[in-house]
Design a protein that fits this description.
82% of the residues lie in helices and 0% in strands. With 215 residues, the chain is mostly helical. The mean pLDDT is 94.
């Protein structure tokens, strides 16, 4: 883990970790607004679902920010009621999203619905991959320097966002290039898989004191 850090250095790294949490929240708000709007306008369920997921990540981000402040004050403290409540709300929101996306995907496949375009899905997913990967690397660096398992776990949560962005990029790119039927709905089902797992992990973590939102 490297040489021990001083109290001053630890304070600096905690401020960085909290700043990254705030940036993640703000980025997801912007990404959510743009993605849901363009997904609705272009009739791309994958992009709309991706944007909806971003709003749920905002709730999770609030819990993460609170967690960072808690462990800064007391590194050995356990998850408090605020964090457990945030996890339960986040998990419930993920489950609701999954039901909506799966049912709509099946309906779209049944009626043969196709998006008008998935161009913005390609652009937004590419930007998200870059931004989220930078956040993963940065959060891991800070977590390693602080020797903090919760902050490192948060980096893994952010990595899930990279995976979801890749799914959106692939499905949107294939449709934009080849116009393959149902690919947008298939991409949506892929997003639903990750959203379901995130929801499940949120409830599991709410019942325990292990790390943050996912391992």
């Amino acid at each position: 883990m490297g040489k021990p850090i001083t109290t001053t250095e630890a304070t600096k790294f905690f401020k960085t970790a909290f700043g990254l949490a705030i940036f993640t929240i703000l980025y997801n708000i912007v990404e959510g607004v743009i993605s849901t709007y363009l997904g609705f306008e272009d009739e791309s369920l994958a992009l709309f679902g991706f944007g909806s997921d971003s709003f749920i990540e905002v709730i999770s981000g609030v819990g993460i920010g609170h967690m960072i402040l808690r462990i800064q004050r007391n590194p050995n403290s356990r998850r408090d009621d605020f964090e457990r409540t945030a996890l339960k709300i986040t998990g419930t929101a993920f489950y609701i999203l999954v039901v909506g996306l799966v049912l709509t995907s099946i309906y779209n496949i049944y009626i043969g619905h196709k998006p008008q375009t998935t161009f913005w899905g390609v652009i937004i997913s590419f930007i998200s991959i870059v931004v989220m990967w930078v956040l993963v690397v940065w959060k891991r660096s800070v977590g390693t320097r602080l020797n903090s398992a919760p902050i490192l776990a948060d980096a893994n949560c952010t990595l899930v966002c990279v995976y979801m962005s890749v799914i959106l990029l692939v499905s949107s790119g294939i449709y934009e290039l080849f116009g393959i039927p149902y690919i947008d709905s298939i991409g949506t089902l892929g997003l639903s898989y990750f959203a379901f797992n995130e929801g499940k992990e949120c409830f599991e973590k709410a019942k325990s004191d292990d790390l943050s939102c996912c391992d």
